[in-house]
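Bug #77: duplicate submission created two jobs. Keeping one. Sequence:
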Amino acid sequence: MVSMKILEDTGTSIKVELSDIDRSYANAIRRFCISEVPSMAIDDVVILENSSVLYDEILASRLGLIPIKTDLNRYVLPEKCDCKSELGCSKCRVLFVLDATAKDRVTTVFSGDLVSEDKETRPVSETIPIVKLAKGQSIKLEAYAKLGRGKEHAKWQPCTVSVLTDGKQEGTYILKVESVGSMPARTIVSKAIEILEEKLLEMKSGIGEKQE
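Kept job's structure:
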């Protein structure tokens, strides 16, 4: 039976010892931490006004790469939402508003200037620079964040590090995961294991149906 032992847990990083597990399964957990665990990121941006030095596309790209606090119990993946709408709803997307103007001096617009309709879903840091505005320049936009997976785009990767190494004893492995801050590293590992179990059950069920 697979056993896990937490060797280190700082909140944003975790080191886990995995025992009595095949290396392929241990490596699958590592990969799922990066590619399968959902996290929130800005995906759709409606530019209402932009007189900054950045093109609309570059501005939207920068917004998408801002890590956002994610509570997987509050939202569902768009494809699993019962709204069945491309626009989304309160169950599968969050609206952010940015309205900034440099009045009498050069002004830096930060991630903290993004106003979220959900106070719990916000940038992990308020000091991530987005763009500098010269005097008289302004930005006004609406941005919609939703859950996605790292295998779809890097902006949805919940961790910066996911590494598997051999343990001190034969048959043991050390998994180290560092979160971008969107959710605790412990949550990422736990969710990765949950997703792996779901996929294995789906495969088992599929094989059983074919045999019948």
